Amino acid sequence: MFADKISSVLFGSRMERALDALAAAYAAQERFSGAVLVARGDRVLLRKAYGSADQQRGIANTPATAFRIASMSKPFTAIAVMQLIEQGQLSLNDPLNKFIPDYPNGDQITVAHLLANRSGIEDFIAMPEFEQMQAERVTPEQLMTLFRERPLRFVPGTEVGYSNANWVLLAVIIERITGRTYWQYAQEHILKPAGMHTAGFDWAAVTNAHATGYVDTANGLQPVTMIDSSVMLGGGDVHATVDDLLHWMRALIGGKLIRPDTLRLMTQAHTQTDAGNYGYGFELHDYFGRHSIGHSGGMPGFVSNIAYFPGDDVTIILLSNLGSAAWEGLTRDLVAAVLGEAYDLPSARSFITVDPALLADYVGEYEIQYFGRTSILRFEIEGDQLVMKTRGLPKAVMSAMAENKFFARSKGEVEMTFVRDANGRAHQIDCVWGGHALTAHRLDA
Questions:
Q1: pTM of this structure
Q2: What is the pLDDT of residues 160-214, one digit of tens each?
Q3: Spelled out in words, what is the top-level CATH class assigned to the domain 356-442?
Q4: How is the chain split into domains, by residue range?
Q5: Helix (H, G, I), strand (E, B) or coil at 1
Q6: What share of the chain is helix, strand, coil (3-state, %, to 5)?
Q7: Which of 415, 407, 420, 403 is nearest to 353 (CA)?
Q8: Long-range Cβ contact pairs of 401-408 (< 8 A, separation 24 or more)
Q9: Contact between 292 and 309 (Cβ < 8 Å)
Q10: I want to staple 296 with a disulfide (CB 3.0 to 4.6 A). Which of 37, 65, 262, 305 is the partner?
Q11: Rg (CA), the chain
Q12: Which letter does DSSP use for residue 71 in this model?
């Protein structure tokens, strides 16, 4: 028995060093700043922080630092909905107009459609009106004015379209059923029973140690203007530490928040997309042949990811206050290390200088689709640099890896290769964005 304990300690020490070396390598290349937690069961294999929580004041990130987790908030809303379904207070097939009687097309949109991003309701994140509203404290009714009168993008249930509007509406349904604000309900029925003692919803009211979000610009890293939590209702309003999120995951899989059969239903593939499968509030991915459940998140200045592997009882949690952090690559490498798969430490990219006259060939607008959402990528030249502007994301400087291949720090890392047609004109871009292969097509081709 004593020998077994010694072996366990030595193995744990080697694993911690390997995981730490990975995260530290990403941080050294300025590809990560934040906190990491890796656990097998309840046993923590790595719990460490990297980089600065506040560069201006010289405050370092720690494992106790709170971060905004953006869309990783969506499973919380989904769990709240499923709790009410378990209590018989609503059902997956209930129409939206049962709870919001005057909502347009509310008789066609069900609770299940909202949970699986299959409602057809347009996402408001990229709307100009949202940019004007995002720093304000708003009511759910004010938030709904952004999208409620817009036409549906497709017949509910027939296609997929990732939309934060779905999660606002789910939060409103919870409020109308319970008579409490969504934040009050979720605090009492999810955060508190899960032991998430430092987590919450109102970023403006955070008093414990918390991180400032940073984005890459032509002038280096700059702090972001705060987006008020109220405008991210239901879909991006949670803040937490890595410890909070491990407590949450252990409570979830331990049956403390919802029944095991309910969790199985939530983590079935109800939507298939180019970005992977989606359940009810959960992203479903495979790494090295192992299935995972969880959710990623991104907003100006922050990215996050949590992946739980049921077959191995392993949890990976990344929280970053660098909006361009390479969370996808770091997640993959940490998974490889803890599951005994092959991996390499990240290598630094090499860049070249491209003639500005050549860059002019790439100027224009390109359309890209991801998870049912359409975005316009606009490329311009500023000084001697090619920059990419996308509504809802910070401006990104394109660094040349070859005459037609560029790297940018945006929502995560992205590599883009401009492809020319038979006439020699750039007509599309082959992208690897967030680990996903995507294609953007020129609009004025």
A1: 0.91
A2: 999 999 999 999 999 999 999 999 999 999 999 999 999 999 999 998 899 999 9
A3: mainly beta
A4: 67-339, 356-442
A5: coil
A6: 30, 30, 40
A7: 403
A8: 401/349, 401/350, 401/351, 401/352, 402/352, 403/352, 403/354, 403/358, 407/349, 407/351
A9: yes
A10: 305
A11: 22
A12: G
